[in-house]
Design brief:
It contains 4 helices and 10 strands, in the order E-H-E-E-H-E-E-H-E-E-E-E-E-H. By secondary structure, the protein is α+β, with helices and mostly antiparallel strands. The strands form 3 sheets. The protein has a 4-stranded mixed beta sheet. The protein has a 4-stranded antiparallel beta sheet with strand order 2-3-7-8, with no helix packed on it. Strands 6-9 form a two-stranded antiparallel sheet.
């Protein structure tokens, strides 16, 4: 589901996501604990999905609601658009495995792993600042790789 501050709320099936143009990128996922890995991530651009939803001018935050109680988080809409962020349906040319967040994982390039939302079931556009599970526990809401891990 894509809803909140949009003109046309969307309810997208997996097949709907597959119908969007796909992009592949080699991107490193860095964990705040010090480990990381580089992989080929493939999926649609969030901007294409947002174009179909018709994002309202007041929207500034994208909230990712997840089936995992500790996985919900948010990213700034400007960051998503400026960095052309994708949602990965594939990892290294294989359908995204369940442990990586099937049906898709947000590929939050340049952000620590807790911003790479998995098992997403709702994307809400909001005008409010929002702190996810880990951010409410003290982790940085910016989560820039190389930046401070904690606020």
């Amino acid at each position: 589901t894509v809803d909140g501050l949009v003109k046309n709320p969307l309810s997208l099936s997996y097949d709907d996501l597959l119908s969007y143009p796909m992009e592949s990128r080699l991107i490193r996922l860095d964990c705040v604990e010090g480990w990381g890995f580089t992989a080929k991530w493939t999926g649609p651009r969030l901007s294409d999905i947002f174009d179909n939803a018709g994002v309202a001018p007041a929207a500034k935050t994208v909230i990712f609601h997840c089936a995992d109680a500790s996985g919900y988080t948010s990213l700034e809409l400007d960051y998503i658009l400026e960095n052309d962020i994708i949602i990965a349906l594939e990892l290294n040319d294989v359908t995204l495995p369940a442990d990586r967040g099937f049906p898709f994982q947000v590929v939050a390039e340049g952000k620590y792993g807790y911003k790479w939302a998995k098992w997403v079931n709702r994307i809400e556009l909001s005008s409010e600042d929002y702190r996810g599970y880990w951010e409410r526990a003290g982790y940085s809401n910016q989560a820039d790789v190389g930046g401070p891990a904690f606020d």
